[in-house]
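// run 5 | inverse folding | seed 20
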């Protein structure tokens, strides 16, 4: 049995040609689900040993999926967030779960800076009116556009993306402070409520966990200075859509740039789609060519390591990184 090729199931929504192009270099038997629904997922998992997870979360690796995969030995997420996987169920089954931490750090951090610039200067706001035939020169000036320099930036989550964002904002003259679940040895740390109370621009870039879900609710956002800006590149559940809308409608927030939402995609009639002070993005802050190449390279290299008996990297659930067959 040990000489048999590994059964590699690719759940990421790539077409068959791309699956073969990306993963055909590996010594594995490639499979994709026949149907992209729950039944198709469970059927495909029955023989799966190595899984490249679905970054869209359509085919989530929940507890039922883990139970449907008796031979599952390793799950690789082609991205950073692993909230579509049941980490506890995988850990209980002894299955390491890895992400591609660091692969899109620069791209997401640059998006936070670009989004803050957009909100501060009303770039998207003015573009919408110009395309509608308007010439809102005086109105644009009256909206209170301002430079980023000298503004106070608060970063919620000081992982790789938070640290790179801090460096970029400091480079344009902002003062930067942060809150993180783990205090760092560098940077200006503030307790969360104090950070919000002193942030003209709030950047959200921490993982969604049971502890961070709803962290920035309406009561917390109400601590921000009047007219603050919010940029969320983390997960919608951390700063819920309703809380953001309440802060926008009250004037507490002058604008928000959102790459993530409670449900993705948000409904076609969602209030955030219609709000004039919101810049919307389809969970694509990390989707630069370089970042996507980094992610795929990291994922393929990790699956190769699993096949060859070498430790995999970026395991997030404290399971032995040496992948062992379960047949």
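// decoded
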């Amino acid at each position: 049995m040990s000489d048999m090729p590994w059964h590699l199931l690719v759940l990421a929504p790539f077409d068959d040609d791309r699956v073969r192009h990306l993963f055909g270099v590996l010594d594995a038997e490639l499979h994709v689900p026949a149907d992209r629904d729950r039944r198709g997922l469970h059927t495909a998992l029955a023989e799966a040993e190595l899984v490249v997870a679905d970054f869209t979360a359509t085919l989530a690796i929940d507890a039922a999926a883990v139970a449907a995969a008796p031979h599952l030995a390793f799950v690789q997420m082609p991205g950073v967030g692993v909230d579509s996987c049941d980490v506890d169920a995988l850990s209980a089954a002894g299955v390491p779960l890895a992400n591609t931490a660091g692969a899109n750090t620069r791209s997401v951090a640059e998006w936070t800076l670009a989004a803050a610039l957009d909100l501060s200067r009303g770039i998207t706001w003015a573009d919408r009116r110009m395309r509608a035939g308007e010439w809102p020169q005086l109105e644009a000036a009256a909206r209170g556009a301002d430079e980023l320099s000298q503004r106070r930036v608060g970063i919620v989550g000081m992982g790789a993306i938070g640290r790179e964002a801090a460096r970029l904002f400091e480079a344009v003259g902002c003062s930067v402070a942060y809150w993180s679940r783990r205090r760092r040895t560098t940077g200006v740390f503030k307790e969360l409520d104090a950070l919000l109370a002193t942030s003209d621009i709030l950047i959200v870039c921490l993982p969604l966990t049971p502890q961070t879900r709803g962290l920035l609710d309406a009561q917390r956002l109400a601590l921000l200075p009047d007219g603050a800006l919010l940029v969320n590149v983390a997960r919608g559940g951390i700063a819920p859509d309703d809380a953001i809308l309440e802060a926008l409608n009250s004037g507490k927030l002058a604008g928000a740039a959102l790459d993530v939402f409670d449900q993705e995609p948000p409904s076609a009639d969602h209030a955030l789609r219609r709000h004039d002070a919101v810049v919307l993005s389809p969970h694509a802050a990390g989707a630069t060519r370089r970042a996507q190449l980094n992610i795929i390279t990291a994922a393929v290299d990790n699956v190769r390591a699993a096949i060859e008996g070498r430790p995999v990297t970026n395991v997030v659930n404290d399971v032995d990184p040496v992948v062992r067959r379960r047949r």
